[in-house]
Amino acid sequence: MSRKPAHLEMTGGKSPRQRVWEAIRTMADREGGFTTTDLTRASKVGLPLISEYMKALVAGGFLRREDRLRFGAAHRYWLVKDVGLEAPRLRRDGTAVTQGRGNEAMWNAMRHFLPTFDFRELAAYASTPDHPVFPETAKAYIGALHAAGYLDEVAPAKLGSRPIAARYALRHEMKTGPRAPMVQRTKVVFDPNQGRVVWHEEPSWEET
Q1: What is the pTM of this model?
Q2: Record's superkingdom (predicted)?
């Protein structure tokens, strides 16, 4: 089953997996562990999605599951690796999902380290040996955030024999939080810090 776009899946700025993870952390100190039913009640997320995520968390080493059960008893779980507030982004086999890390790194660079930047500088600053950010990726992300009102163009691009890329700065009032705005394939920018769509591309209408 394909996942919905983030702005349709999230409630109050939080995805179902985020709500489940937060519920897990509140139950981390329970001596007797917790069950999927406990999490359903606490997170208001359906059991099928919780069960799928729990399997990934066990496979990834975040949870321990008690498999020796009495007849009819539910599996019990314990949190063994707490990585903080943000829910681990995992595939079914427990391996980490890397999609979106580039946006997170670029957003962090804009918020904390780069007063102004062009797309090449942003890509270079946000890159790591394990996860490079390509200049064209940074250019597309800057374009989406500029259209959504996050960025000011502080110096326009200059053409010629030695072209100079446009420079941008993150507007102070748009530093909405630690989570990077998401750019959906449907040309929508969704801000998970605010839990809302902040921009969408207007459809083009051709006269007939």
Answers
A1: 0.66
A2: Bacteria
Give the CATH number of the domain where residue 25 resides.
1.10.10.10
Q: How far apart are the first and last CA of the chain?
A: 38
Could you tell me the two tokens for 153?
């163009």
Whether 149 and 111 share a structural domain: yes
What mean pLDDT do residues 28-49 have?
94
pLDDT of 97 reads 84
**Residue the block writes with tokens 């010629």:** 160
| 14 part of a folded domain | yes
Tell me which long-range contacts 166-170 makes (C-beta under 8 A, separation of at least 24). 166/118, 167/116, 167/117, 167/118, 168/116, 168/117, 168/118, 168/142, 169/115, 169/116, 169/117, 170/110, 170/111
Given 79, 112, 141, which residue is the final one in a domain? 79
